[in-house]
Amino acid sequence: MVSSRFLRFARFTGVLAFLIFFIVHFFTSKSRYEKTLALKKQILQETYNLNDDLPASPKTNIKIEYQQLPETGYPDKINAAFITLARNSDLEKLAPTIRSVEDRFNAKFHYDWVFINDEEFTDEFKKQVRTLCSGSVIFEKIPEEYWSLPTDPSFDKRKAHNNRMKSREKMPYGGSASYRFMCRFFSGFYYRLPAISKYDYIWRVEPETTLHCDVNYDVFKYMSDNDKRYGFTISLYEFPLTIPSLWKTVQEFITLHPKFLNDNNLMDFISFDEGLTFNLCHFWTNFEIIDVNFLKSEAYTAFFDYLDKSYGFFYERWGDAPVHSIAVALFMDKSQVHYFNDIGYFHSPMHNCPIDDEIWTKNHCMCDQKFDSTFKSFSCTGRFYDVQQLEKPLGWEKFTFTPVNGQ
Ligand SMILES: Nc1nc2c(ncn2[C@@H]2O[C@H](COP(=O)(O)OP(=O)(O)OP(=O)(O)O)[C@@H](O)[C@H]2O)c(=O)[nH]1
Ligand SMILES: [Mg+2]
């Protein structure tokens, strides 16, 4: 009797305990679920609204601020871009160059990059450069008239052909037609492309080149703020056989248009005898930062048109480097030409490697100062210092000799 009553009581208690456990578990797990959901929401919000005001954590009182790089650079950005002429086949050599320019400079500023080609760029090329550049990327195909022989009746195709044949063994790219198209294009046409003419400054970058040092300031803004219109890193002497009649043609142009000659020009940089002859000194244009409005000016346009009509780009093998350099030296005020001693640059086989230890260290340069070309005998930059009356860095004399076997 007693035992059956006890059994009923035990069964009732068991059911009651199970019910209580079930109800408690139901409510606690619901609030845990809601908490988890709220936390997830918070994380999502923090992730996607990085710059919203976040509450400090009540436990630590620490407020985590997420750093987000601006999409379009910073408010002071100049109307400027990088430009690169390249073939699809240059991609492998170009990719490390873009990486170097981005790592050393552009990842901080996000300037646009315009890629130009005489053919359509492949999807593979576009995909690769897009992923490396931090600014907008623009692809432009060169119109045929900018990359072909002149069509005027007075142009002698046979003479151009003969020059290529006889120059084949005498100079680099002497036999190449496309090299001549490239030099003429960089002398007179590239800045007329709509994708380029809209900028105020352009910085030219070639495949297989490297920036040796960090550039922690906005180079374009520096140029604009200081009224600089041309910037270079390396200068040297031109191969005379490529330009037998260039200086004569320049002299004719100046005689016809003396008004274009700047009163405060850099003639002494390009001539040892006040303009009688060209001393072959030129800025190496594979690195070049230039004011596009200078190229679009009446003086430069008339200058290029005059040179082009003499057909020296084809009857000889005029390079864009002497053409740009002569124009800069004669038509610009010399105070507007700037030598960058702090960027560090390499285009085979020449280095610009800051010899000033403070600059080299501060900018984390990765180059051997022994090989810096600035004050070597094959460079004209020492002359640039003299003509501009710039103070040479301490100990520059130690860097005038080319090391033999790296010693
Ligand atoms: N799209 C295209 N680009 C070219 C062509 N030829 C040269 N280039 C580009 O024009 C620039 C200059 O050419 P380079 O071959 O480097 O000329 P260089 O600097 O005088 O000679 P190197 O000492 O060999 O570098 C580079 O950016 C090349 O990628 C061409 O036929 N088509
Ligand atoms: Mg090159």
UniProtKB/TrEMBL annotation:
Keywords, in A-Z order: Glycosyltransferase, Membrane, Signal-anchor, Transferase, Transmembrane, Transmembrane helix
Example of a GO biological process term: cell wall mannoprotein biosynthetic process
Family: Belongs to the glycosyltransferase 15 family.
Catalytic residues as annotated in Swiss-Prot or TrEMBL: 288 (nucleophile)
The protein, known as: Glycosyltransferase family 15 protein
Domain of life assignment: Eukaryota
An annotated GO cellular component: membrane
InterPro entries: Glyco_trans_15, Nucleotide-diphossugar_trans
PANTHER family: ALPHA-1,2 MANNOSYLTRANSFERASE KTR1
Transmembrane segments: 6-27
Localization of this protein: Membrane
Organism: Wickerhamomyces pijperi (Yeast)
Membrane topology listed for this record: Single-pass type II membrane protein
GO molecular function: alpha-1,2-mannosyltransferase activity
SUPFAM superfamilies named among the record's database cross-references: Nucleotide-diphospho-sugar transferases
